[in-house]
């Protein structure tokens, strides 16, 4: 199944678009920039954003107004857990609430790593299911598949190890180069979706060897 999703399906800076559209609407009459309103009064900013969002693949775009990721490659799962736990504790000491934090992993087999890290920070947590209901006062833990549509002030994307993302099982199951390319695109897209759930703070961790996809986040 081809999951070539467009940018408009996953991310559009609605607040920025609204602000620019409002400014456009207030531009004085008779100016050349408002010429398009003469024959079709449509918000040019919103139209351009919508067209751009339809044309651009979501997997090829990382919003530049999001938080710059902190990338930590650890030597052991224990070190990763300590890193995440300390990062979470530092944020909550600055006033963040547990329900403003999301922790995501590639698949269910990595959920225990997230549980340990959040548990070490002595935070209550909830494992997200298909209903994707967050709970006040609890850190949300889930797989990347459940991240779409959510937003948190702080996000941790854990277990970005080699053979975890892209998932080795999926790579071994393909036989054609086109299928392999699709696997890489959809796996990269999963990481993109998880990372873009963060509004203010983003931590991405792995246990060495790390996923090759982490290089994309350093650009």
Write up this protein.
- The chain has 219 residues and is an alpha/beta fold.
- The chain folds into two domains: 53 residues, no CATH class; 155 residues, P-loop containing nucleotide triphosphate hydrolases (Rossmann fold).
- Helix content is 38%, strand content 16%.
- It contains eight helices and six strands, in the order αααβαβαβββααβα.
- Helix 2 runs antiparallel to helix 3 and helix 4 packs across helix 5.
- It is globular and about 50 Å long.
- The model has no long low-confidence stretch (mean pLDDT 84).
Which properties best describe this structure?
alpha/beta; 219 residues; 6 strands
Short overview:
The chain is of the alpha/beta class and 219 residues long. The protein contains 8 helices and 6 strands, in the order H-H-H-E-H-E-H-E-E-E-H-H-E-H.
CATH architecture of the largest domain: 3-Layer(aba) Sandwich
Any idea what the radius of gyration is?
20 Å
Counted beta strands: 6
Question: How many domains?
Answer: 2
Oligomerization state:
single chain
Outline the biggest β-sheet: 6 strands, parallel
Mean pLDDT: 84
- Neighbour order of strands in the largest sheet: 1-6-5-2-4-3
Structural class: alpha/beta
The CATH superfamily of the largest domain is P-loop containing nucleotide triphosphate hydrolases
Query: How do the helices and strands follow one another from N- to C-terminus?
Result: HHHEHEHEEEHHEH
> Could you name the CATH topology of the largest domain?
Rossmann fold
User: Residue ranges: pLDDT <50 for 5 or more in a row?
Assistant: none
CATH class bucket of the largest domain: Alpha Beta
Beta-strand content estimate: 15-25%
Question: What is the overall silhouette?
Answer: globular
Please give the alpha-carbon distance between the first and last residues: 29 Å
How helix-rich are the residues, as a percent range?
A: 25-40%
Total of helices: 8
